[in-house]
């Protein structure tokens, strides 16, 4: 692949994205050339402290409570039924008993009254409550769950296509949402806010529960989670995001008539997979279709997030538990000053990412516990052409515990707008379920030639993994003809540190955005071993760095294909990998420095490139 220097437009974009945040004492200028590596890292962590200092002053709400019972809410009885406790795993799940009263209108009325009074606290008391519609926050309102409050959101998708701002006819009354980093009109999330200021979702403790009932069967036996892809024979196999939707036109030219044959071929690829809902939406983005025409909702199968706040400022989520989310659990988008503190996340469904801040600025995650069916934390920043909100930047993650999940602290894969200045410290990747449902990888960065974007200034320190990570590799599937042999790179699971620049390349027809990954600094990682029949083991490989694969690129020539570069891994002990003969994998990387890195008892000090 021919390469060239970055063009001026790209350089200016990167410079703009590096602008410091007002109020932070340490800006990127402090990291200028000439500073020693240790000094630069110290200054980076000083910047992290500046981010945390932004949250010293708590949000303030009027001292008035609005009890939802005063507006007609009534508690219900809960019963146990057979459902899914995890994707594909049957078990007993709780749900409101038949005849439970719907509390949607009462909660909406309480929020409206609170807002009209100038703000305050809307209180959901102890008890079980059925809510057949979204809780929509307004400025200066704190929705608070008392100790022992259990809110069950309806498991009927139609209840989240009734109250949105946009009447889309047969598709329902929908809201502006973002689904896997693409904008659309879709079902409302269970808890939602758009363009609000000074909002909070809080609980008294972890007995304050928000329950999405993602694995609870409806009357027809289906669940929200089935929309990921059916797992049983039946008449509704077509109701899934992975199946060609007959509502989708036969050609993208039916929607965008001006496309050239070459553009149509690029967007549609060589099969009709682009007509599945999960690919149709990003195809609309690539084709430049405005959001007002990206209508999903009824007749489509894109599950909503549990909690989604878009274009909000001063956001607090604190002190509750969340279960059985249909899709991502928390998804703030284009928000400024987001505090996510002391939340217990327990949802083992498909795509149950715990916390996914996207295109947000100034975020603090502190004291949370994750038991996730997908990534515990996954930082996002737009996908395809939906990058108008810019990068995610200035994020601190600390004092958290992570058990099951695909990745612990993850950056990407949807990162077309860029991710920078992310700091993770004092984290226990506990991996308590290592024998049955292990954490696949702990520190994970993922992108590809479609998602592109930049990922830089990522700092990790002082993390422990008492039970290692997944001991079995999960090999990714390169494109046909790729220089990467099939079943040779375990980038989906098995490494403690994974930087994957060829993530799921077969998922995207358009691969025209080479990513740039640089300035990654990891220190103080301590990985424990678990007992196996072959002796103590901690992981499959310690480190996996898969840089961009130039073969995948299908855009205009020449292209900028940069290696992963300027990575330091210092003062770490990775335990004993299963693949001790090849403790790391490198492809298209430059200037990876290992300093006092112990793997299987051997200390490594080296500078690596490949």
Summary of the model, kept short:
This protein is mainly β. The protein is built from 5 helices and 38 strands.
Task: Describe the protein in words.
With 610 residues, the protein is mainly beta. The protein has 5 helices and 38 strands. The protein has a 14-stranded mixed beta sheet, sandwiched between helices. The protein has a 7-stranded parallel beta sheet with strand order 5-8-14-17-20-22-25, with no helix packed on it. Strands 23-26-28-30-34-36 form a 6-stranded parallel beta sheet, with no helix packed on it. The relative contact order is 0.09. Residues 1-32 form the signal peptide. Pfam families: Glyco_hydro_28. Keywords: Glycosidase, Hydrolase, Signal.
| Oligomeric state of shown chains | single chain
- What is the top-level CATH class of the largest domain? Mainly Beta
Topology, number of strands: 38
What summary fits the major beta sheet? Answer: 14 strands, mixed
Structural class category: mainly beta
**How helix-rich are the residues, as a percent range?**
under 10%
How much of the polypeptide forms β-strand, as a percent range?
A: 35-45%
Strand order of the largest sheet: 1-4-7-13-16-19-21-24-27-29-31-35-37-38
Note the gap between the termini.
16 Å
Task: Give the overall shape.
Answer: globular
Q: Which whole number gives the mean pLDDT? A: 93
Poorly predicted tracts of residues: 1-34
The CATH architecture of the largest domain can be given as 3 Solenoid
Structural domain count: 2
